[in-house]
Structure formats: C-alpha cells, structure tokens
Amino acid sequence: MIEKSPHNPVLLNETVSRLLTNPNGIYLDCTIGYGGHSLAIVKNLTSYGKIIGIDLDPYALDYTERQLAATQASYSLHHENYREYPKLLQNLGIKKLAGMLFDLGSSSSQVDSGHRGFSFRYDAPLDMRFNPGSGISAAEYLNTSDVDEIGSVIYKYSEERYYKKIARSIYQCVKKNEMNTTFDLKRAIEKSVNQRFLTKSLSRVFQAIRIKINDELNSIQESLKSSMQWLEVGGRIAIISFHSLEDRIVKKFFLNNAMSCICPREYPKCICSTVPTLKILNRKPICPDQREVDINSRARSAKLRVAERI
Predict the structure, then answer these.
(1) What is the Cα 153 distance to its own chain's centre?
(2) How many whole angstroms separate alpha carbon 290 and alpha carbon 19?
(3) pLDDT tens-digit profile of 37-59?
(4) Structure pTM?
(5) d(CA 136, CA 131)
(6) Residue 307 — φ and ψ, nearest 5°?
(7) Which helix (H) or strand (E) element contains residue 164?
(8) Model confidence over 176-229: pLDDT tens digits?
(9) With left for phi above 0 and alpha for psi between -120 and 50, is residue 78 left, alpha or beta?
C-alpha cells in the first residue's frame, strides 16, 4: 500500500516527462528523498528498467523503501552522499545510465520535522545534518568558528546583506554559551536585522549554515563533473535547484558542456576541435506554474534544467 508522502515532489510531471526516454534503462535518482519522482518514473519502466536511489537521510530512505517495495519495481537504495555515486555504480556493475536526477536542497519534511534543526519555526537542537550520524552539527560548527569565518559562510552561501552584523551577534552568543538551539540562532539574527527584512534574513542564514554543514555546493560540482562518463548517448540529466547559487553551478556546467568552440573571439576560424557532450533542452529554466505554487508554496523558487548526452 502506498502511503501519503510527507513531501510534495516539485515539478513532477515536467521532470519525469523530460527525463524518461528509455523504459528499459537504468535511472539514478541522486537525491531520492521520499521517492516522489522515482515512484513516477518506475510506473513508466518495463521489467528491464531500474531505479537506483541515493540519499543521506535515513528517515526518507526507510519511507521510500516501503513505497518502492509495494510497486514490484526493480530498485536499490543506498544511504550515502550522492557525490559518491561513481564508486557505487562501479560496485553495482553499472556501465551506463539512461537518466540522472538531482532534486537539490532540503525537503519540506526535513524542514517541518522540528527535531532536525532545519527550521527557525521550531525550537530544536541546532543540528542541520542531512545524515545525523555523520559530520559535525551546526551548533558544533558555530561554537568552534570565529566571527570572520561565520560572516564569510553567511555571505558566500546566502548573499545576505547584513552578514557582518549577524555574524557578530552569533559570535557574541557563542561566547556566552548561547548557541545550541535553532531559537538561539534565531534570536541572534533578530538582534541584527530590521523587522521588515527579518523573515528573508532568517531563511538566508539558516540556508547558508545548512549548505556549509552538508557541503552541498561542492557535492553538486563534484557530481556534475563525473556525470558525462555515466550517461549513455541520448540519456538525460535533470536538475531541480532552489536558490541562485545552485542554479548558477548547473547553468554553467550545462553551457560549458554544450560548447562546440572555445577559441578566443578574435580567431577568424575555429582551431580547438571542441566536441560538445550535452544538448541543452531548455535554455531558460522551467518553473512551477501558479497552480503548483498555490498547492505547495515551497515550490515557488524551484528551477528545472534538463540536458541530453550527445
């Protein structure tokens, strides 16, 4: 029996319709989470097709295991960082993939689960790890960092304009041993930002620290570098991002791999013999329509980019 998912998959039809080209193929869902996209994909696969799912969140994987088992589909799930997928595919004996999916960022369930420390709406231990059993928590990180390090992370990963004031406020709380919960962090931000801008600043700072704790941007960059050797010709890669830093990385990667010439502009003739490896299927990102945003407000910032291996 399929349970009601604790997370609404964003741009579900738009993603699956563009990603799925070979019903007999192997598809890698690098951020399978609660399995919304993968459950839709397996409905369109033959008995030869397969889903391989990766996620750092053990709670999400437990849920997805139950859902996929009920479909009789061929699948395997793996609890690890998606940047490790090349090693995983080698161990599984996989040669090529028909498609790769990345649904970046945190899920609504992770944000809404108060005990995980992702949200400033709930008072909880300041954790923020996708995998609670690995790495250091946000509290440990903030309590062992100086004010310049904290400010640098906030600016780099959120472009928050009041990053210096917020960093100083956080550091003052650290010195008083008052940086252990989400509300401790929230209070430090509240002391630094005008009430008019508070909600956006809270979202940005929590986002920045979460990205740092989980090393999210480096994971994206490493994973994209390896992707071309695994996609079969005609296979597709679909990436859903939720903020400009992620989308910038994806857009640059797609453009660089779609180039047919990298010669300087002043050269009258191409001499580089560059061979493109990707064909970009949508020059502008696909965004949710108003109907989806009305149903799921967190979908508002989602952007989907899709490209095909050539």
Answers:
(1) 18
(2) 23
(3) 999 999 999 999 999 999 988 88
(4) 0.89
(5) 10
(6) -140, 160
(7) helix 163-175
(8) 999 999 999 999 999 999 999 999 999 999 999 999 999 999 999 999 999 999
(9) beta
